[in-house]
Amino acid sequence: DIQMSQSPSSLSAFVGDSVTITCRASQSIGNYLNWYQHKPGRAPELLIYGTFALHSGVPSRFSGSGSGTDFTLTISSLQPDDFATYYCQQSYATPITFGQGTRLDIK
Amino acid sequence: QGQLVQSGAEVRKPGASVKVSCKVSGYTLIGLSRHWVRQAPGKGLEWMGSFDPKDGETTYAQKFQGRVTMTEDTSTDTAYMEMSSLRSEDTAVYYCLTLKISAVRAVRAEYFLLWGQGTLVTVSS
Q1: Which residue of A has its CA nearest to B103?
Q2: Which pLDDT tens digit goes with each residue over B106-124?
Q3: Contact flag A50-B113 (C-beta cutoff 8 Å)
Q4: Coil vs helix vs strand at B44
Q5: CB-neighbour burial class of residue A88 (10 A; exposed 0-12, middle 13-18, buried 19+)
Q6: Best residue in B5, B93, B108, B112 to probe A by mutation, most A CBs within 10 Å?
Q7: I need a labelling partner for A22 at 20 to 30 A (CA). Which of A64, A97, B53, B94 fits?
């Protein structure tokens, strides 16, 4: 199975800050990397797919980069609505696997 | 764009079975493969398997082989996930999802386009 490892597991930031979350795969997954935002009591929502592409309706302050085994999600100018848990997910091979999540809290 | 609406919360005793439904609406979702993911309390997201309504093919995570069955009633566009021999560790929110395939910078991309609202399954004696 491909293991996905996110860092940090949690972080605190102020509104207006820029943050970066890292996701590392245990083997190369090309660009088969997606990011989701998850808020308590709600279903996760797609943010970025194929490493770079912003899902429809997602603000441009979200961006993704990387290739192979190392990927990043960057949120610039944090807004109150951005405080949530973020998951990376690989779709290169089954079983599909997720990172353990990064909880982003307001400072 | 479409919607996935799941059945309501369930409570079961250890050893029992549960069947969760997921109604698919919206023409853009018809024919896309259905996946199931769960999240136990305080844990991350765990992929369980998938069902392709175009050919009926199923793929299960090894952990759930023999205990989970994924099907779909194409006449009502409703997907089902049935799990047997439930144990307390199966207490979780279960999500149905649709997988979308497209291209990003001319490279194939596969991603979970939509998620159902989740169904809490509680296993307790």
Answers
A1: A50
A2: 888 999 999 999 999 999 9
A3: no
A4: coil
A5: buried
A6: B112
A7: B94
